[in-house]
Amino acid sequence: MTVTPARNLAQLTRADFPLLHQQIHGQPLIYLDNAATSQKPRSVLQCLQDYYEFANANVHRGVHTLSNRATQAYEEARRKCADLIQAPAVESLVFTRNASEAINLVAYSWGMTQLQPGDEIILTVMEHHSNLVPWQWVAQRTGAVLKFVHLTPQETLDLEHYQSLLSDRTKLVACSYVSNTLGCINPVTEIIRLAHHWGAKVLLDACQAVPHMVVNVQTLDCDWLVASGHKMCGPTGAGFLYGKPELLRQMAPFLGGGEMIAEVFLDHSTYAEIPHKFEAGTPAIAEAIMLGAAVDYLQNIGLEAIHDYEQELVSHLWQQLKLIPGIRLLGPAPPERAGLVAFTVRDIHPHDLSTLLDEAGIAIRAGHHCTQPLHRYLQIPASARASLYFYNTAAEIDRFIQVLQETIDFFAGVLGEPRPPVSP
């Protein structure tokens, strides 16, 4: 496997991404919304066409050549995803439509059946809605109790508070590996160790981790982990759930239908082995194969190189943002964060910032980023977010900072507000 030096990543990869080479409103596109979705290299895009031109057939259901070809490519993609997170067995990797479906699978197949009144689920105030809503449903239907870990003054996970919540009533801890708003990299190894001490299971939302750093589920010892394909140079409509094989075998199927069965009678059915008992119906075959191609692409670059390069970029972004008067940066300073920064600027609404930045060809996120409870906790209605990937450059960051300052100056002029002094 070829590992690319971190300092050259953007230079060596940007040509692979057709979408990046266009103009928006007459300006070169600067794409800084990678935490929402990533762009796709040509090898992944070509994979879609190749599948439909040469291998289009249903998987696992035929003995003809095309079906065998499709099945082989589909299962090879599963192996690639399992290898990416260093899963102990390929059958521990379940394909889903996205990470949200993966969390719902665990919530329904395990949470609804294993939790009892008075059992406790520990979440954090920084969770994405996809790691909140399913557990709210579980709590409502089982009588389980939700508890939430607070933040430190540095806006990181408060590990001491987390420890204080743990008890023999704790049955599940579900938390993000990396916050999609605060950018903090949570101490997941310690979170898992402490939870297991009390006999609790742990689910990690790794959507913002798997595309950006080395993830080893065996070293982490997590019970479940979810990821989303479209955030890691893959297509929409494909994600995955990792689960410890012994847990997956104990869990009932989430959906019923074709493919997930062993035998079907008029009045009852038996179910296939893992992972197939969780993949009812015709899967997103092309999308799964594309996800496998995306994994190949990331592995060829090297996740360590990606992480190192993004650390360089986010340090530069953070330092430049800090120089802007009136700005509030959310989350900890580098290197205690991943490659994204959410922020607010005085009384300027993030949607207004994003709109004017878009006119200059710069794409950022604005809103609550599917973390409304976190924004309420921070006492802000919304934030703007610039998120990076390995194809971004320091020059793009500099241009973003320039336009952001011009936008802030524009609003200051319109509102007649004096500019605050530059922070030390």
Explain the overall architecture:
The chain is an alpha/beta fold and 424 residues long. It has 14 helices and 17 strands. The strands form five sheets. It has a seven-stranded mixed sheet with strand order 4-10-9-8-7-5-6, sandwiched between helices. Helix 2 runs antiparallel to helix 10 (285-301) and helix 11 runs parallel beside helix 14. It is globular. Mean pLDDT is 95; it is low at 419-424.
Going across the biggest sheet, name each strand in turn.
4-10-9-8-7-5-6
Can you give the helix content as a percent range? 25-40%
Beta strand %: 15-25%
Calculate Rg over CA atoms.
Answer: 22 Å
Number of helical stretches of at least 4 residues: 14
CA-to-CA gap between the ends? 45 Å
Describe the largest sheet.
Answer: 7 strands, mixed
Chain-averaged pLDDT: 95
Low-confidence stretches: 419-424
DSSP, total strands:
17
**Helix/strand/pairing category:** alpha/beta
What shape does the CA trace take? globular
